[in-house]
Amino acid sequence: MSALPACPNHNMSPNADSAPCAPFPARDISDLLARHNRLWSERRQCWCASAPPPWWARGLVISPELRGRYESYLPAGEYLASIARLAEAFLPDASWLPSVLQNLTSHSGAPAALPYASIADYWATLPDGLAGKLCLSADELLPLFCALADPPRYGTITGRYPEQLAELDALFRHWPTQTPLRILDIGCGVGLNTLEIATRAVTLATQAKLSVTGITAERLEVWMAGARRLPHDPQREKTLRAFPRELPVIFAHARAEDFARPGQFDIAICNGLAGGRFLHQHAQISAFLDRCAKALTHAGRLFLANRFHDGHHKQLDALAVIARDKGWNCTGSPHNLCLQAPL
Question: What does the pLDDT read at residue 185?
């Protein structure tokens, strides 16, 4: 069995809630991994002997019949619980588990709410090389857990919101000399957009005292952003590693639902969260706006952009209405809002 990968010795933020650059795995899990592979190799042999084709492949339509067949031989709940146990042993502690794996190893007796309808649905979310696999090598564990923390559907890449970048550029160009420019990226993911914005701020606000903070609810994303590693996505990792190391950026663990950061910020950015499935109920939006108002300086700005489908149009319209009712000055379209904090 190949050696388990170690975490490169990159410096991380000294903040207490920042994910440390701990070695992977946290402890010897070779026996646990062997048991997992032995069990699921036997289950696969039973499938091959008893169930008709097809085996899962990219693009396969997962019909209710096929989904039921998979659940009969390869139940998703049991498999994901086994993966979660591997993750608990591999990662520094249970708080590092990707959110889709949390609560799957509970011994309370209560059935866990599964994030996938079947193992075929689970595979459909994974990158090539991991999709369709039951048994895993030691070298595949870190990419797998990173892929679960940063699923492809989030689509975090640079240049997603050109209109927002143009508005930020205009602010950066006219930022007063020697004045602090403190930026908060809420829901920063693996940090691509955070580093993109920081690079533009360094280039355009050349005399400003710049500091940038990115926060995400996934501790593995904090590690990926700080270490500039995407083990599950080498192509995006090249983009991540191309950003200058000396950028004044830190990444920390915090949720958009209840974040609290020391000090105040001049600009806050929250892309792809507000108005969508994470923040769409009236009470959620209202509480989120109140937290942002506390986090921003007098007349600070909150930028909200997204690429949601029209199915979320009502929530986006509602967000702007709620913000105006709370005294925010709102400009832009529902898909690209700029909010100025209440006076």
Answer: 97
